Queue: 2 jobs
Job 1
Amino acid sequence: MKLTVTKIGLALLLAAPAARLLAADELPKAETILDKYVEATGGKAAYDKLHNIVTTGSMSFGAMGIKATVSSYHAVPNKTYTEINIEGMGKIQDGTDGTVAWSLSAMQGPHIKDGEEKAQAMREADFRAETDWKREYKEVKTEAVETVDGKDCYKVIMTPNTGSPATRYYDKQTFLLVKVAMTAKTPMGDIPVESVLEDYRKEGDILMPHKTTLKQGGQEFSITIDTVKYNVDIPPETFALPAEIQALLKK
Amino acid sequence: MSFRIALTVGVLVCCAAAADKPLTEAQRRLNIESFEHVWTTVRDRHWDPKLNGVDWQGVHDELRPRIEKAKTMTEARAIMSDMLARLKETHFGIAPADLYDDMGSDDDDAGGGAKPSHEGNPGITLRVIDGHALVTAVDGHSPAAGAGVKPGWEVLRVDGKDLSKRLKRVRGEFASSTLLDLLEERSASGPLTGDVGSSVKVAFLDGAGHASDLTLERIRPRGVLARLGNLPPLYFWVEARKVRPDVGYVRFNIFFQPDDIIKSVREMVAACGDCNGMVIDLRGNPGGIAGLAMGLAGWFVDKGGQQLGTMYLRESNLKFVVFARPQPFRGPLAILVDGCSASTSEIFAEGMKDMDRARIFGTRTAGAALPSVFERLPNGDGFQYAIANYISLSGKPLEGIGVIPDQEVRLTRQALAAGQDPVLDAAVAWIETQKK
């Protein structure tokens, strides 16, 4: 249940600071770091109690002064629906019913994801991917200790079953995830994106970041989470494919 | 999501209120801060790290002492504009803070407390043809319509000032620029605009060649006030109708309000199931949200994955991919453009031309198509800067070149006075030839 936004057509990247030289055998195994992260944010038992999460929040597009609201639904095993309403631009929807990954907006129209873009969306839709990362990643490796915002962090390379690796930075002291970097696979091309996660606060039994700042394509924007609800009664139609997507599938 | 703006700042600054009071020390400091912000932003964000070979540090060192000594906002703004002009590219500009403060809101209709808008005009659309400022359209129910002004009339003087001198100066300076038509239009239309509710004296030459002096009230521009982040508010309208029972027609004045534009196009496509063709009229459209070109194109292609072109940023490249709508319009498509069609209009028109999906009618576009963003500066002014170059599908850059129509059609005074639209007529005639 990570705070990712690639599911809404964005993705994450990293500007690599200078690596601190440590011998490989001095670094903890990536498996250990990932376990520690789960432990630090509530523990596997707390995660396992959850079967869905509904979040609302806001987005701010940096210097451009554009603001948006966000509502996101995420349910087991791999269903998502995200709706962003941008002032002056309208609604952007994105989701998957567990089989089809799609996006829809007035700006770009309906789109059914395929190939690596779909693999990325489905990976992010996997509700248990944090506690059972082996479902989605074939290899994880601790590469170095690097400084992020003044804190020593373990740099972990996550190689998914399909697609290009992502780089995660876990705080060496707290094991919280503080930065993620990856290349978003989009129809517009590969877009390197960097995200910084902060303002960790408890929601129920889970400690989660409430602010994510993303840099992509020379622009910066932030997402702030306002409300989080677990195990709520989400109407099944929330994850149903919109009519335009269904029409595209029939085409 | 592409929130880049492809809209020339020139459309925003034609009628900014002057604020030429001496600067306070605080304002002077904010201007210096703004100057540094503009300079640094261009250095760090321009898609070409070499800035087309411009000695940017040298520009800074030359102009910094001048901004420190600037005595008025106008002077400070001119120095920052001068800095940006050294790049010799469109989509770099400074929009006066007044533009944010002085435009009324849509709530003005409710009455009471309405602030004056400097965007008021008598309801006339002009184009400069062969050095003459001709009326090409008159808004229904506007003061100009009420006074009997008709397309084809020539505007000779505004408030006693001869337009021909202004136009001659613009033509002299920009004769070889693709921006000429746009700048001439701005130069001719500028004096007509002013505070809503104020009056303007216009000396016309009517369709029969008779002089006609009229005093016309300036009213709010057509449409609704649309806002997008730090971009100054702009009036937006869209119209969709059939120009003949078998030809659909969609026109909007700016690429804003995606939901409204797409709704109109969707409805026209639905109503045009048996149409022989469709016309998208982008004449006078200065651009707007760049990504909307993709969404619009999706209504006219049958196969997804095609692209209009590519945006080249410093960090990466973004393809302008078209997602086909489930039930697009498959018939002949005509796109109308003129020298005042810019930015997103050019991205859309050239891309559709390159895909061999549309035939372009009219005159060469403005050649001003750099995707940009809009920020507020510490001194309150707006700052537009391009962050990418744009190359169309065919490999052709649009900046400084523009879209060359497949069929050039020029407006004439005679045709306008006769109530004709030769560009639209040519498009409809072509659609007629495409009947199967």
Job 2
Amino acid sequence: MAPTHGAVRRARLPVAGRLRSSRMPVIEQLPIPSPSQVMLMALEPLVGLEVHVQLATDSKMFCGCSTQFGAQPNSNVCPTCLGLPGSLPVPNRRAVEYVIRTAAALGCTVAKRCRFARKNYFYPDLPKNFQVSQYDEPLSFDGHIDLNVNGDEVRIRIRRAHLEEDTGKNLHLASGSSLVEYNRCGIPLMEIVTEPDFTTAEQCREYLTQLRLILRAIGVSNANMEEGAMRAEPTVNLRDPETGEATPMVEIKNLNSIRSVYEAVRYEIERQRQAVAEGREDELFQQTRRWDEANGATALMRRKETSDDYMYFPEPDLVPLEPDPAWVEEIYASCPELPAARCDRFQEQYGLPEYDARVLTESREVADLFEATCERFEGAAKIVSNWVMGDVMSLLNEAEVAVADSPVTGEGLAELLALIEESVISGKIAKDVLAKMFETGKGAREIVEEEGLGQISDTGELEAIIDQVIADNPGPAEDFRGGKDKAIGFLIGQVMKATKGQANPGLVNEIMREKLG
Amino acid sequence: MPDVSREVVEHVAMLARLALTEDEIQRLQKELGRILEHADKLQAIDVEGVEATSHVIPMTNVFREDELGESLDVDEVVANAPDVADKFFRVPRIVED
């Protein structure tokens, strides 16, 4: 047996691997039936998702190094995450708390007692030659997410959510060597594994969308797939529901967006269906495939002839976890309303269209701002929704300010909207006032008063201006009198211009028609 | 206990990334067999109701707070590396297959 030199082979995490078989009905792998038999079979896809989530702690899982994204190579590294002899890991309490918080959101049970385990393999992304993970004693298990996909209610069971450490990053050079850096190595990673309950790619997409919203709502991760803070690996195979016969399991890797997961799962289900239907048995074997974004197809990475052998054993450097029941209870009790539930409530309570409710509840902060405004505003909730989704969001985006740090609070926005309701200012002026509120942090009324932006509703003052506009524009005035109703628009525009938009447009229209009548 | 099979020895050697000569393989088939025989004696003990011990000290829940500590200077990090390029560890090409 050759020692490792030259190429290093990668042996990585199976999706649930042996664990899966211990908790679900065993599906015997039977010979592929002949094409004629196949045509009679209504094959149903069995898709499972394993998702890795970087937890949003300041420091790493077992040491005090920073988790900052995009730091200089190997600058957030210490003896512990470098696996130097004599170093000892100490678990980050917040990382444990975040998994428990996730467990609460996913309806999981938290283990009364659990341990970390060493997962042994040789690969340069972990300098210790093992990953600290959890094996047969996950921190939490048995939860679910309910999805609504095209009107169908689907329950996806969560098998487990456990805690482990992230690995380093490799860069492959064209010159034939690889570069390794360990800033990511040791960042707390939560692994969430589902049962193979998905039957369509749409369900996978909706699951990941909801999971991401939940993780953000409970504040445990930014769940950004492009930055690698959330990574998904599907397993796909087909089963004959009558006989229980199933095709061999296929894992898909290299997916860095929800869309690519959707496309890869859709492709893979179809690939296996066709292989079965056309009797191409040689294409159906246990394997790992890579999603090829450019070609829109999955491609074979490696055949899996044997199950991976990670020689798991309890991590001797870490003592068992026994989460204090009072602590767990406190975390469960403080679990916020989840986005899907809030979205439903927004439609019922505020009468919002589904679109508005979905957009607003995509971010807890945005939804909070909406509700805080509604609490103090007597007008329609739809008006608040329009302002929050429109002007407020665009001002925040332009200034690159997080909603949580918005200088305009719900109270401030409610005050502004009340000024419109009371006809003190027009909607157009309100946009300018909002921009000034952002800039200065001042209240809407204060700005309107200071800058004299209140609408002119004094009929005497308006009449004088209107008389002047009619005198200055005899042509359009004559057109209107001659029956061209549209001509009044131009004249009203002139009044608005003369008053810098402060004239009450309804009143101007009324007076103008009287005078020209 | 009979000798351990050749396949098992080769598998265990692969997992530990050990290069074994033909003589070593044959010797280890015998030696591992004897080691397993000894382990079998332990297997015979009735441990019904006894919880597996991973730690001899009855201690749980050792945590640290989520606070930043010292990291090493980058030059120290790579000081013992056989090969370094731009503060990265340079290793033989990794095949991701």
